[in-house]
Amino acid sequence: MIIENPTTPLTEIFDPLFSEKQIKVFIKREDLTDDFISGNKFYKLKYNLIEAEKLGYKTLLTFGGAFSNHIHATAAAGKKYGIKTIGVIRGEEHLPLNPTLNSAQENGMTLEYLDRKSYRNKYDETLIKKLKEKFGNFYLVPEGGSNELAIKGVAEIIPAINTQFNFICSACGTGGTLAGLILGLDSKSFALGFSALKGGNFLYQNIKKLLSEYQKENLTNWQINLDYHFGGYAKVNNELIEFCNEFYIKHKIEIEPIYTGKMFYGIYELIKNDFFPKHSSIIAVHTGGLQGLNGLKFRKLINK
């Protein structure tokens, strides 16, 4: 299996705030990787798909919530690259299916539901054994897609950036994307993550563990900002939604409030508060996930 990386643009955005603070901000448009295998998910899945084929697996199994970008992308990748997919979904089945799960099912993914208590122990050997008894042997990709092969893929974003920069920023859910960016930088420039979850301190250990697979756990050119989670994972408020709407009006680039909206809000706030030195050049990685907007509309959390 050969999976070529897409060519995605680097777009500078302009704002009076940036001029005032003498800062340049660019967006790496990884939301344009693929219509369905979007953003960071493309890079996280790339080498996992190649490895699954190499080892002779015909089925890939992974975990996620009912509105998961990872579930959505994995199903689409399975259809595109000819591998069966199983999505173990946190919680009970609700019909009609929400847009995320409906798309996954349409792309051929088998949906298996797991109660929330059992889901907390989703990698328990007994559970994995039961899943193999039910579905046969499978290649396991962790929730969010974050493993050593995922960060190998994400690291390839860095050499595709054709300008010098001081900071690169990413939203953080499981830490895999930030770990990949750190790996790709290899001590050049500084990586800054924005946790989309409340209580995201655990991300530091997740990232160090992922980097340890490449003997890079002692790199110090990175940090995670924990201040812009807006109450926790999938929590949004009117201020954040309005920010995302205004961002689109200003820049004609769509973002969503679960991940990228929180990151961009944080970047703006840090620029206002002089976190970045004058004359800094900042790359913000747009990690896609725009399918999540349909989920927010489905839950009536946004109207637009």
Descriptive report:
Helix 8 packs across helix 9 (202-212). The protein has twelve helices and ten strands. The protein has helices at 16-21, 40-54, 69-81, 99-106, 116-119, 125-135, 148-154, 176-185, 202-212, 238-251, 260-272, 292-298; strands at residues 10-13, 24-28, 59-64, 84-90, 110-114, 139-141, 167-172, 190-195, 222-225, 281-285. The model has no long low-confidence stretch (mean pLDDT 96). The strands form two sheets. The chain has a six-stranded mixed beta sheet. With 304 residues, the chain is of the alpha/beta class. The protein is globular. Helix content is 39%, strand content 17%. The chain folds into two domains: 10-39 and 147-298, Rossmann fold (3-Layer(aba) Sandwich); 40-145, Rossmann fold.
Outline the secondary-structure elements.
Blueprint (H helix, E strand, L loop, with lengths): L9 E4 L2 H6 L2 E5 L11 H15 L4 E6 L4 H13 L2 E7 L8 H8 L3 E5 L1 H4 L5 H11 L3 E3 L6 H7 L12 E6 L3 H10 L4 E6 L6 H11 L9 E4 L12 H14 L8 H13 L8 E5 L6 H7 L6
Parallel strand pairs: 2-10, 3-4, 3-6, 4-5, 7-8, 7-10, 8-9
Antiparallel strand pairs: 1-2
Helix pairs in contact: 2-3, 2-7, 3-4, 7-8, 8-9
Put the structure in a nutshell:
With 304 residues, the protein is of the alpha/beta class.
- Extended strand count: 10
Q: Which class best fits the helix and strand makeup?
A: alpha/beta
Number of domains: 2
User: Any guess at the CATH architecture of the largest domain?
Assistant: 3-Layer(aba) Sandwich
Quaternary: single chain
Number of helices: 12
Read across the widest sheet, the strand sequence of neighbours is 1-2-10-7-8-9
Give the end-to-end Cα distance, rounded to a whole number of Å: 39 Å
Give the helix level as a range of percent: 25-40%
Mean pLDDT: 96
State the major sheet. Answer: 6 strands, mixed
Strand content is 15-25%
Instruction: Give the CATH topology of the largest domain.
Output: Rossmann fold
